[in-house]
Design goal:
This protein is mostly beta strands and 472 residues long. The protein folds into 3 domains: 119 residues, no CATH class; 218 residues, no CATH class; 129 residues, Jelly Rolls (Sandwich), CATH 2.60.120. The protein is 14% helix and 35% strand. It contains 3 helices and 26 strands. Strands 4, 5, 7, 8, 11, 13, 15, 17, 19, 20, 23 and 25 form a 12-stranded antiparallel sheet that branches. Strands 10-9-12-6-14 form a 5-stranded antiparallel sheet, with no helix packed on it. A 5-stranded antiparallel sheet has the order 16-24-18-21-22, with no helix packed on it. It starts with a helix and ends with a strand. The model has no long low-confidence stretch (mean pLDDT 89).
Length: 472
């Protein structure tokens, strides 16, 4: 009996020792997993163009979490994910996790954990082509122009970001909390395989010339007589596509064009004849890196120029690559400010939403949509297959209604604009089976009901959720 008790005690002690070790292993494995998560998230923002920096960032993050590559046999390995250049895998191995009581079996065990992170770029806005906006003042359709308002223009005039005035433009009282001097960004996306070709970026009607809403590009002073300055500047593509604030400028580095084009408030007759209703080369250069070249357009915060101007300026952008073949795309980044004056019904490109976003929520925000002098205006959110989506949207008080067909009245013939100086927020649930083939562009279809629209508005669209996240 005593022998049996001794044997049982030995078994119990062994089981207890193993239980302690297993708990220790689970704890260590959780630490390894946490470190690999951090490593993957740190690395992915450098993909796919700078794998060396991605590896360094991953190892730095792992080291901060207690797992230094090359110390005590620990390895931190970064690898690409086949078929997805915006994903990266980080694998951490700790080969010598010591046992506490189980040394009769082994002195240590190896623990390996890995994580996969990805980043999702902002959805392209406004154009799938190498042009953004009308290409001449003689083209009646789609009468769609890129736009920016002046510093002293009221926010309710359709631009919530470039204007510092929080109230009506005639008084400029109050401060617009959403004002930003950085203006608007466009992406000039140069396709893979284009290195060695010459890229040209041009601006149409780059100078501000007052002519009134509905005439040519619809440049117009909204009150007073003060002109607004303008600046157009192109930046290099770089290895951090999620951060457009660190791209080096191309100012002074173009073979043709200045790279940074500034207009003061004098607008001499010589300047007007050179730039009004004309295409101007902002920059031509030889491509050494493919990717997205940011183009920034702004009306304040311009070196040597006063912050002023109760006005709206319209323009267009186009880009081209030499030698034929694939051409660049030009689209809005994050948001886009536009003007349209088409009567009847018009459809405008809104955003490109690829099938990778299936199961997520697509959010569209339109600021001050549906301006005009008469008529009832409606807009619809149209899917790539041409059908009207189902959505939920906010009323004039900012409250979401029930889901239904996404056709929204933005102006009543009797009471005027429904969303005057307000955001209209629209949410579309993309089902788990969402797909779009080769054309993933959603559109906004406007029905101006035979009225006379002067719709100066700002749009933004995004996929809800963290753009940098773990997928494994």
């Amino acid at each position: 009996m005593l022998i049996i008790q001794v044997l049982m005690l030995g078994v119990l002690m062994t089981m207890t020792a193993l239980a302690v070790d297993v708990g220790s292993f689970y704890s260590r494995a959780a630490e390894v997993q946490k470190a690999s998560d951090a490593a993957a998230l740190a690395a992915v923002v450098w993909m796919p163009d700078d794998f060396t920096t991605a590896t360094s960032a991953a190892r730095d993050a792992a080291g901060r979490n207690g797992f230094t590559h090359g110390t005590n046999g620990i390895t931190v390995v970064v690898s690409t994910v086949a078929g997805n250049p915006r994903q990266v895998r980080a694998t951490i191995t700790d080969p010598s996790v010591p046992t506490i009581f189980g040394r009769m079996i082994t002195n240590s065990i190896s623990i390996t954990r890995d994580s996969v992170a990805e980043y999702v770029l902002a959805v392209p806005l406004g154009s799938p082509n190498s042009t953004f906006g009308n290409q001449s003042v003689g083209a009646s359709a789609p009468n769609f122009w890129a736009a920016v308002n002046g510093y002293s223009t009221g926010k309710s005039q359709g631009d919530p970001f470039a204007t510092r005035c929080g109230a009506a433009s005639t008084t400029c009282s109050g401060i617009n909390p959403d004002y930003r001097p950085s203006g608007y960004l466009y992406g000039v996306e140069v396709p893979a395989g284009s290195a060695g070709r010459s890229l040209t970026v041009e601006i149409f009607d780059s100078i501000f010339v007052n002519r009134g809403l509905g005439t040519e590009t619809s440049d117009a002073i909204m009150g007073g007589s003060v002109m607004l300055p303008l600046q157009y500047e192109l930046y290099e593509a770089d290895a951090t596509p999620l951060d457009n604030a660190d791209n080096p400028t191309l100012s002074g580095r173009c073979s043709t064009g200045p790279g940074r084009l500034i207009f003061d408030t004098s607008n001499t007759s010589g300047e007007i004849s050179t730039y009004k209703n004309q295409w101007t080369t902002l920059c031509t250069f030889n491509v050494t890196r493919t990717g997205v070249y940011p183009l920034r357009v702004k009306s304040s915060g311009i070196s040597g120029q006063p912050d002023q101007g109760n006005a709206t300026a319209q323009y267009s952008v186009r880009s081209s690559l030499s030698g034929g073949g694939a051409q660049p795309r030009v689209y809005g980044l994050g948001d886009m400010s536009i003007f349209t004056g088409n009567t009847g019904t018009s459809a405008f490109y809104l955003a490109e939403v690829p099938a990778m976003h299936a199961g997520k929520t697509f959010e569209v925000e339109l600021f001050d949509p549906g301006d005009g002098s008469s008529g009832t205006y409606k807009l619809s959110i149209v899917k790539p297959d041409g059908s009207v989506a189902a959505c939920r949207y906010t009323n004039s008080s900012g409250t979401f209604g029930a889901s239904g067909t996404c056709t929204i009245t933005t102006r009543n013939s009797s009471s005027g604009s429904v969303y005057d100086g307000k955001w209209l927020t629209i949410r579309v649930d993309l089902g788990a089976t969402y797909t779009c083939g080769t054309d993933c562009w959603w559109k906004v279809s406007y029905d101006f009901g035979g009225g006379t629209p002067t719709d100066r508005t700002t749009w933004r669209a995004n996929i809800l959720g963290d753009p940098v996240h773990l997928v494994e």
